[in-house]
Amino acid sequence: VSFYDYSGGGTVDAIVNLDTDQVVESTVHRDARPGASLQVVPRALAIAAADPRITEVLGDVRKAEPVMGPMSGWLMDDDCREDWCVDLTFAAPDGSGRTFHVFVNMEREEVARVFYSRSRPERVYEQPAAQVRTWDDGCHEQYGWNVCWEMTAHDGVEFRDATYNGDSIFSSVKIGQVEVFYPSWPGGYRDEVGFAASVEPADGTDVTDLGDGFEVRQLFTEFLTWPNCVCCYRYEQILRFYADGTLDLHFISHGPGCDDPMIYRTFWRIDLDLDGPENEELLVWEDGQWVEAETEMSLPLFESLSPEGEVLITGAGQFRYRWLPLPTDPLGDDDGQMFLLRWNEDQGEGEIVAGPPDSFWPPGQWLSDESLPGENIVIWYIPILNGKKGDPWWCAPEPAPDFSPCDAEMRIEPIVEAVPTTTATVELLDTLEPSTPGTPTRAVEPTASPITTPSAELTGAPTSTPLPIAGDTPEEIARISGCDNCHLIGDIGEAGKVGPDLSSIGVLASQRVPGQSASDYLRTSIVDPEAYLAPDCPNGPCLEGIMPGDYANRLTAGQIDTLVDFLLEQKGPTTVETELDQAPPSALSPVAVVVILAVGLLVIGIIVLVFIRLPSNGGKS
């Protein structure tokens, strides 16, 4: 049972034995917010029903058609960044297929924001068979591996006590949360996966023989009309165990999500147990060599890779693994973060409670200067999947009828060669070759002479590849570039999103920067969005770092000219207001004078008639 503490802030969790009517355990998480729950619906609806904006659109909100259950949401530019807020979603009553969002601040008991998110036509795709809310706890022994797993309430499938050829590999692997971010709001959700979470397990837990290993796969989905839904989520958690001792952690998001573009952050927690819970060491690639991590630290997932693409090496004695984040982003924009922490019982060993948004909490709040060498190490692996709208599609529900799921994969691969346990370890590790299927996974005993191997081909970190944006007409370019995700431009896009309304920018652009023409201002805003910010946005001051900065590379000069000309034509209602404000006083036209006199005489006549008392004897007047 979860409660929100209105007095002290944070979430209080209790485990209750219903047979004995006893509270077995309770914990307080001051930085956490409750997850999605139907228990909050009555209170949230009561707050929403009192807001005239909701009544104007939905009428009685209690009778409106919901799109999803209540979601634990956050907004980057609002009190909902820190406060406990819930997003209620409804089908737009105008039949447009859009989703109407009502962000309710549960602490302040007020509606924080209302807005629409995009619609799309239904896919030409066979509807999946009826899904069953089910999973299978169990164990599996094959290819030298022995591992058990069980479904948790909020942390996905927790894999436990894995051994390979009798040697301990890890004691726990699980997913604490999936943070979803939509820059156009700007905000998103703290998704969780599990039998009591916002996205629940479905269709059982599959164990598949791969020939050179096996995988354990679990689907999590919202039980709606997927894939023909606009605002719903579908995830897969996969672990693969190979005969050579390799372990793969794999996460897939099938979407379609609530809006474009979208960003997913998956919080994996891995409690290492290499050859026992202690005596572990971590090596990170720094300044062209491997160095030992002395204290707790965070490091970027793809910015500091070895020439072979390794981000980390873990070991205990002669037992070592290399960690290789596999690049999957179609444009090379792979991103993520890792946290290397010393094991503590109250830092995710039990239930992981989702923390504040856009903060990497947990585990960021636990980062300290605790020593790591020789201790029990916990690794947090957090890949970031950046959605794209265009060709190629990525994390996006288009182009129908095809799917564009996104995924992230970490390969944890054994190192076979002997590695001396002296300082020479650091100098030699970058020459080691990965193991091949069928070879032993334990290192042989050290020899007098260091082992050298042919150096691998230098691959380095993946590089970003800005692909061009399609489109010839201004409407096509604006849609495929994603302009309509954040801006209202005349009849294009949605109002109330993160970007300023551009429906009158053709008039306003020349007033923004003294001495700069409207066309120059617009061109700079497209190719260098951080050069200057618009003075106001729909929900407050405009934010830095929201608008993509790669349009100069992805749009042709002709496309930029087309967009600039199109924006110069957007003169909206501001044109009339500006002309009236700037027009000097002038004499009224003769026609206007006649109209005013006629109206005045009519009003005077009505007043006179009201006050004349007519004869009551039928006389004439």
Secondary structure elements and their pairing?
Layout: E1 2-4, E2 11-17, E3 22-29, H1 41-49, H2 52-58, E4 71-75, E5 85-91, E6 99-105, E7 110-117, E8 138-142, E9 145-151, E10 157-164, E11 167-182, E12 187-191, E13 200-209, E14 213-221, E15 234-242, E16 247-253, E17 263-272, E18 281-286, E19 289-292, E20 297-300, E21 312-316, E22 319-326, E23 335-342, E24 377-386, E25 406-415, H3 424-428, H4 474-481, H5 483-486, E26 488-489, E27 492-493, H6 505-508, H7 518-527, H8 551-554, H9 557-568, H10 574-582, H11 590-611
Antiparallel strand pairs: 1-2, 2-3, 4-5, 4-12, 5-6, 6-7, 8-9, 9-10, 10-11, 11-12, 11-17, 13-14, 14-15, 15-16, 16-25, 17-24, 18-19, 18-21, 20-23, 21-22, 22-25, 23-24, 26-27
Helix pairs in contact: 7-9
Describe this structure in words.
This protein is of the alpha+beta class and 621 residues long. It has four domains: 1-30, no CATH class; 31-117, Nuclear Transport Factor 2, Chain: A (Roll); 138-431, Distorted Sandwich (Beta-galactosidase, Chain A, domain 5), CATH 2.70.98; 474-577, Orthogonal Bundle (Cytochrome Bc1 Complex, Chain D, domain 2), CATH 1.10.760.10. Helices cover 15% and strands 31% of the residues. It has eleven helices and 27 strands. The longest helix is centred in the C-terminal third of the chain and has 22 residues, at 590-611.
Name the descriptors:
single chain, 621 residues, alpha+beta, Nuclear Transport Factor 2, Chain: A, Beta-galactosidase, Chain A, domain 5, 9-stranded antiparallel β-sheet, 11 helices, 31% strand, disordered C terminus
